[in-house]
Amino acid sequence: ESINYIFEDDGTLTVYAPSTDLQWWTFIGDNDAVELKGWEVDEDVYYGNVASKLEDGTVHIIMGHYNDGDDAPDDYAVIDAVVEGGKIVEVDNSGFINDLSQVFDVE
Fold this sequence. Notes:
This protein is mainly beta and 107 residues long. The protein has strands at residues 4-7, 13-18, 23-29, 34-42, 45-52, 57-67, 75-84, 87-97. The strands form two sheets. It has a four-stranded antiparallel beta sheet with strand order 1-2-5-4, with no helix packed on it.
């Protein structure tokens, strides 16, 4: 598994990962703090461009990893990004988890 990212000049973050018809990644949140500005799949790679809704602080970019035929993700990637002046400027931490309740209060 591999999630990569590129800091864009406009202060957004482009997250990219392998994507096929049988197994793919997609942006699923945190919708209170970040928004998906656009996405595409090109040559078996998913690209999602994410912007912060916060002016300053830390945001969580959550990606779901799906397998064909599954309604819910099999696992997740969580990227903690630092925001300054409304721009994503740094990735503080990232990792893979099996269940969002491992890190977040999920009902």
